[in-house]
Amino acid sequence: MLKATDIKKNFGKLEVLKGVDLEVNKGDVIAIIGPSGSGKSTFLRCVNLLESVDGGSLEIDGEYLFREEGGKLHFAEPAKKRALRKRLGMVFQDFNLFPHLSVMQNLMLAPMQEENANKGAIEANCRELLRKVGLSSKEKSYPCELSGGQQQRVAIARALALNPEILCFDEPTSALDPELTGEVLAVMKKLASEHMTMVVVTHEMGFAGEVANEVLFMDDGIVVEQGTPAEVLRNPKQQRTRDFMSKLLTV
Amino acid sequence: MEYFQDLNKLGSLLSEMLSGTLVNIEVWAFTLLFALPLGLLICQMRLSKNKVLIGISKIYIFYFRGTPLMLQLLFMFFGVPLIIGVTFSRELAAILAFILNYAAYFAEIYRGGIQSIPKGQYEAAHVLGLSNRVTFTKIILPQVVKRILPPMGNETITLVKDTALVYAIAMSDLLKEAKIAVLREVSIMPFIIAAVFFLVMTGLLTKLLAYMERKFAYYR
To answer: A30: domain CATH number?
Structure first.
């Protein structure tokens, strides 16, 4: 479905990504873990075209968003890029809801911009999504009236409102109090059980171990180790992965 | 005190001053009507990626913010006709000068508002596939309006008082009517009335602005 090859990214002289590969197939739940500054968030942002890349290729369903040829990057034309881009959904660490819009307006805004948008159908779909994330009663609320966990669930519903094929999460629970992370993880687990394809950058090892079918451990701009949760989390082969895991356990 | 004994005299003084007030209100309203959009345009130039547009907007703001409004007003009425050979009416010269001056301040207030919107709002709009136009009109601008209300309120109140500068090109505004009456009647009462008139105008405006801030208080 999605194939990222040799993604490179520099911030000035600092190489943040030194060539990262990722292949996502339908129904995959891929967890990307690693220490702060390892480049995992930057990688996800590159895949979502939120950062300019310095090298590599990205294709969705066999169509290129950008590709590197002879050392130069070629981008898909804007209309195609937008169309392909829409197959990805993104959930941010700090939610990024639109504060001046109600919950329902947050969900409906993007679908309503599509050609031939049918307001009734979109409204019904958004209601259903709110029900799914357990916030049916909050339709008319504004983001500032919601807890962090509720805001993040709205953000997930908002991303789902565009029917993405792959939903990306950038540390979705890192800005939440511990007692609120559970409700967000529960929604994500529910999506996984419905075979939603997901790529999750996370510090939640429990979630990675329980829900993901593949775990990538990143450090220093590269994928150090990759495999099933059992392999990477419980039985890592690389020393760097072991060091990271033991640090987590001792804390 | 003789005004209170001679109600006819008071009535005619008040009606003179009221017609002067209309001049101030006219300049105030036309300035806002045109300077608000012009300021947004200059702000867009200032925030564009085009070096020429940025340069033009910077020079514009530097000139109009950096010289006295009184000088700009005099220049518009006395100077511009000498250069382009077209004479403006007093009203048009005054309104043009005020629009150009206030647009410079408004542009900078808009810029402050736009730049204070967190990057995450643009990123959310981007991943939702919103076009630049929709992002600006439906996401950014409504939030900017809320943020710039207090400084814009300051400017619109300052503008009420600044309109008295049209006196410099001999327009019959409230201040000029008051001064004529003061000299004619040898009384300071007209000045006091003028001050009250200005206070009523700025007071009403303060109320209106507080109402608008409350309207936007439904979110943080």
So the answer is: 3.40.50.300
Compute the nearest-CA separation of B1 from chain A (Å).
55
Range of the domain at A196: 2-250
Spatial CA neighbour of B127 closest among A194, A153, A64, A97: A97
Mutate one of A98, A122, A146, A169 to test the B interface: name it (highest B CB count within 10 A). Answer: A98
The tally of domains found in chain B comes to: 1
Predicted-complex ipTM score = 0.92
SS3 A156: helix
A49–B129 C-beta distance less than 8 A:
no
Across the interface, of B118, B130, B220, the residue whose CB is closest to A110 is B130
Rounded Cα gap, residues B95 and B21, in angstroms: 15
Banded pLDDT at B20 (limits 50, 70, 90): very high
* Edge-to-edge strand list for the sheet holding A197-201: A88-91, A166-170, A197-201, A29-33, A214-219, A222-227
pLDDT tens digit sequence for A162-181: 999 999 999 999 999 988 99
Residues in chain A closer than 8 A to B218 (CB atoms): 142
